[in-house]
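**Sequence, structure tokens**
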Amino acid sequence: YQVDEILEGRATADIKHRAVDARFDERLSLLGLLMDAMNRKTGESMETESQLKQVLTILKDLKSQPADQLDFLLQAQMQTLREEIQNGKKSGALSHGDLTAKLQVIRILEQYRGILQTNPEFAALKADFDSRVAAMKSEAKHISAQMSNLFRFCEEVFPEGQEILILVTELTVSGNCAAFIGRYGCKEYFAHNKELLFYERQQEILSQLDRLEL
């Protein structure tokens, strides 16, 4: 099965016929492959958004500072992040996701130092940040389209089976996918989700966890 082709809405007739004729265990395996891809894509999207939110917080602090202080302040922020990484590793409280996010933010700040070498104005940093946000939104739109294509594929090849229910359930219990749907939506997901109270309850729990982490 060509997972990427399915998600891009380009599944061939041969792929569809194979899925229709597949036994239930093979259908589950196919759904697993498709969910693995969606989980990875949505996870990367949400990680990028989280990283840019951290960068935005830093840029807001820098916005009103003198231009000749920006490089120094960026270095200070980078040092703070490195210390947080070091302390987190020592205490064992730093998750792999947090480590990856902090390292990526440091890379972005280092790139901003390079930008300041050629254009020592805050506006140059804002322009770069805006382009990153635009790229993130474009990728999220692409992932949303892929999720819609996934539903259309399942609707076509599994019109009367339990596969749609399994797909909706897997998307709901997947932290990455649920967070992505909560952020960007998916009309096919909501159209098939006959137990919206379950989804809404999960969102309430996630919201409570977010508040506990602040």
Notes: The first helix runs from residue 3 to 7. The mean pLDDT is 90. The chain is about 85% helix and 0% strand.
